[in-house]
Amino acid sequence: MKKIVLFLVLLSASLFGQTSDDVKVDLSSPYKTIFTHLHFLQADSYDETKAAQTIYGESVEKSIEIAVKIKQVLDGKGLKVDMKSLPTNSKYQDTISKVEIRNQYILFPKQLPEIYLEKINGKWYYSQDTKEQIFAVYKQVFPVGTEFIKSIIPNVGHETFLTIELWQYVGILFFIVVGVLLFWVLNKLIFFILKRIESFFMRFAHDSLSKTLDKLSRPAALLIVFYLIEVYIAVLQFNIDVNSFLIKGLEIGQIVLWIYVFLEIVSVLIEVYVSYTSRTESKLDDQLAPILSRLLKVIVVFVGILKMLTIFGVNTTTVIAGASIGGLAVALASQDTVKNLIGTFMIFLDKPFQIGDWIEGGGVEGTVEEVGFRSTRIRAVDTSVYTIPNSKLSEIVINNKGLRQYRRYQTKLGIRYDTPPELIEAFVIGVRKIIELHPETLTKSYNVEFVGFGDSALEILVNTYFLSLEWGVEQSSKHRLHMTILKLASDLGVDFAFPSQTVMIEQFPEKKELNGSYETNAEKINQILKDIENGFAN
């Protein structure tokens, strides 16, 4: 037992007593090279000469400068290397690069593709491209004057509190004050520019967009402030942990603001679209506005979430692929819903009817009230509502009575067989005049003719067209037409027949004929027709 305890004590002493001198320079794999570089540039194991051995083909002084600048760039951009994800295989080959597959490894393909490793003479070094571009990348990350600012800070300013130096706290306060002032100025400037742009949109919109533009100018100004802070935050030269936290927070804030800005842009565009479509004849365009609004907002939020996931290191390609597979599974499980959605798009593309049209098809007849994502609502004459799936509606034969140029009306008037020919002719002429003078009828195309002998009446065909396509107006027009025809018949003394039988008994004692008494005086008939004409004129 004593031997076991002694062994554990010696083992722990050997582990905790290990120093930087025990860590050797190892360039056998991407993991070993990056570990060597970063390890010897840490404060407790600092040895820039050893770190510089990760640079190939340069003098010691130049190699040290390059190695230090690579570390500073990584710290300045807040990029923490995940050591667990680094390849330990000495024969590692890059399979994600757009160039040919070769022995290279890019630390941050999206954020910093300029810095990568490559295999030279069996060992892994920072690439030739990295050596050539690192100075330009350094200038992009650290604005001019960064080194000067740090050099003029007094010693007291370098004292730390919670891993942050005192002068950096002052710098944070300075950034906040300047950011607030800059936000105020930019908000006014952007709102002024948007007001000038509003004059262009006002050609399509009726109402002012000032409230919406005000909502748009504030996040836009804040976006610019966040971007400038992200660019110049490197001036404060925080350590990598603080930089990573601040930059990640700024990036998250930017994405949230971008989502908000694009949602407001969608609202502005939909508002302009609604104002524009309100002046068009098509009412189906009005119904498309809420559907477009929901669809565009869902796309904006989805893209924003994908962008947000990249900040946390999630591979969006995997997410999209998973969403595609999941979407396919959902689509297979809900084929009817997908069919209805496709039917919706077909309806909006083909436009077989408009909102308010009177349609007939599939045993349903009524007015189209609403076209939704899945179904269409049709209100029948009895005010009941039919909900028809759009997949079915896009396949059946639809008689769109709302697309008629005119509403045709046809009926037959039956008058008594004993009506004199003079009165029949006068009645036909009178009905023609009524149609010509009626304000809701098409005067260029109509027919009023004595067309046949029915079982119990002489038949007069009335065929005309009403100008209005609305069902209610059509009924009102029919009412006025019918009432005027009845008045004409009453004034002329023309009686309408009804199904009846008349038994004629010749030479029946003391019985008179059943024929009616008709007024056939030409002057009186002309006066009646003139009165009908004057009635419409008044």
UniProtKB/TrEMBL annotation:
Keyword Cell membrane tagged: yes
Domain Mechanosensitive ion channel transmembrane helices 2/3: 295-335
Keywords noted in UniProt: Cell membrane, Membrane, Signal, Transmembrane, Transmembrane helix
Membrane-crossing residue ranges in chain numbering: 166-194, 220-240, 252-274, 295-314
Subcellular location: Cell membrane
Record domain Mechanosensitive ion channel MscS C-terminal: where: 413-489
Signal peptide: 1-17
Domain Mechanosensitive ion channel MscS positions: 336-400
Pfam families per record: MS_channel_1st (PF21088), MS_channel_2nd (PF00924), MS_channel_3rd (PF21082)
Membrane topology annotation: Multi-pass membrane protein
Main subcellular location: membrane
Entry keyword Transmembrane: yes
Family: Belongs to the MscS (TC 1.A.23) family.
Protein name in UniProt: MscS family membrane protein
Organism field: Wenyingzhuangia heitensis
Taxonomic lineage of the native organism: Bacteria, Pseudomonadati, Bacteroidota, Flavobacteriia, Flavobacteriales
